[in-house]
Amino acid sequence: MKKSLICVSCPLGCPIEVEIENGEVISVSGNTCKRGDQYARTEITNPVRSLTTSVKVEGGVHPVVPVKSAGPVPKDKMFDCMKVINEATIKAPVKIGDIVIENICGLGVDIVATNCDCGK
Ligand code: SF4
Known about the structure:
Layout (H helix, E strand, L loop, with lengths): L1 E5 L8 E7 L2 E6 L4 H12 L2 E2 L2 E7 L5 E6 L3 E2 L3 H10 L1 E3 L7 E3 L9 E3 L7
The chain binds iron/sulfur cluster.
């Protein structure tokens, strides 16, 4: 079986073709560099995504603060992570880079603030 992907590791967006047999990657072609090979293999065996959203803040100038995952999160855990984030409320003050949720869903990835609660 062959699967076509677009590498999103850099703006070039190389079209990649992956040959898969019994769930295993047999070959990767179309990539311009090693990062593309790694991206394709990860995308087939354990797809991950960065998570970007916002979390509720109590006592801040704004009611929410933007957050992101400090590392990639397995695609099939995104819904679980969003549930935890949506149910969370943190207290102001919040600074850029603050860990607002540590080790979300036991994945070893923290959720960090990408802005302060005052929106500056
Ligand atoms: S294969 Fe390499 S050059 Fe092509 S999009 Fe991916 S990272 Fe960029």
